[in-house]
Hints:
Layout: E1 10-12, E2 15-17, E3 24-28, H1 36-49, E4 53-57, H2 61-65, H3 67-73, E5 78-81, H4 86-94, E6 99-101, H5 110-122, E7 127-132, H6 138-144, H7 149-165, E8 171-176, H8 180-193, E9 199-200, H9 208-224, E10 230-232, H10 239-252, E11 260-263, H11 274-285, E12 293-297, H12 303-309, E13 312-316, E14 320-325, E15 328-334, H13 335-351
Parallel strand pairs: 3-4, 3-10, 4-5, 5-6, 6-7, 7-8, 9-10, 11-12, 12-13
Antiparallel strand pairs: 1-2, 13-14, 14-15
The structure holds iron/sulfur cluster.
Iron/sulfur cluster binds next to loops.
Amino acid sequence: MDKRNETKKIIVGGVPVGGDAEVTVQSMCNTKTHDVEATVAQIKQFKAAGCDIVRIAIPDMAAAEAVPAIKEQVDIPLVADIHFDYRLALEAAARGIDKIRINPGNIGGDENVKAVAEACRKRNIPIRIGVNAGSLEKRLLAKYGHPTPEAMVESARGHIELLNRFDFDDICLSMKASRVPLTVAAYRLASEEFNYPLHLGVTETGTAWNGTIQSAVGIGTLLCEGIGNTIRVSLTADPVEEVKTGIAILKAAGLRQGIRLVSCPTCGRTQIDLIGLAHEVEKRIEGIDRNITVAVMGCVVNGPGEAREADYGIAGGKNCGLLMRHGEVLGTYPYDALCDALIDLIKKDTEV
Ligand code: SF4
């Protein structure tokens, strides 16, 4: 059994995280939360892209007070992102938030932690403790010299003990850093010590291209080791891209079904514009909701073999290509008609 399945299961607004639950994808709004219209519009975009859970920033009371109006218009669990001010957590909890991300060690004393723990317990609101290598406690930096996996786990342990002291155990944990090796090592260590569900992420990864690579390596490594229950890709980009990238990482790790494109890297044997064709096919299969593999191969040397393994395939020839389904050649089409023929075939089969 994978480690992810041995963790405790928490429920975030009806969506299970941990235990035998499917790995979920999260993103975070970059709208002003008190701007309800803009926030709702973005949440709907996330949902349409396949997002499972959405986080919103709660930097002030106006944001906390906007929670009911936002919740009324969306049907996806909402997580309040709160730093330092326990009163914002109490307000968000009272106004119907589904989960809170807050570090109890940073909210100013036992009484405040107790108040938040009680407010959340009463309403079955889980808390995510978000350890971040960039904001470790000074005493841990002094002890370890710099952010290390051990320092991050010790930080998590401290926050967990605080919540446990007030009889609160509905916890999820993240161990983010902006360097992939540190992130991976910290999560590995955390998964050995704690049985709370883990929210995976590499933080501050940069723009879409760089961030996608770092997230895919970091999150993907952990997922393939059986670690991680929910993921958030962080990109300096439109956050809808985070959702799409997260889903693609889950598919690559074999944890999410859906349509999968296989295409060859092209070489001296290629006699059609395969790069253009692969991009066109990728774009046009995006919305098709089937668990299938589509192969777009450049030639008849390796092409038919790969295409045969796939559910649907194209193997290029000279300005033309073979169209195949489950290894059976259905016909030869000129280059300009290949993509249409493939998409028509898939759609026709999908409707049956
Ligand atoms: S499938 Fe054919 S064209 Fe594509 S890389 Fe392989 S040999 Fe080259």
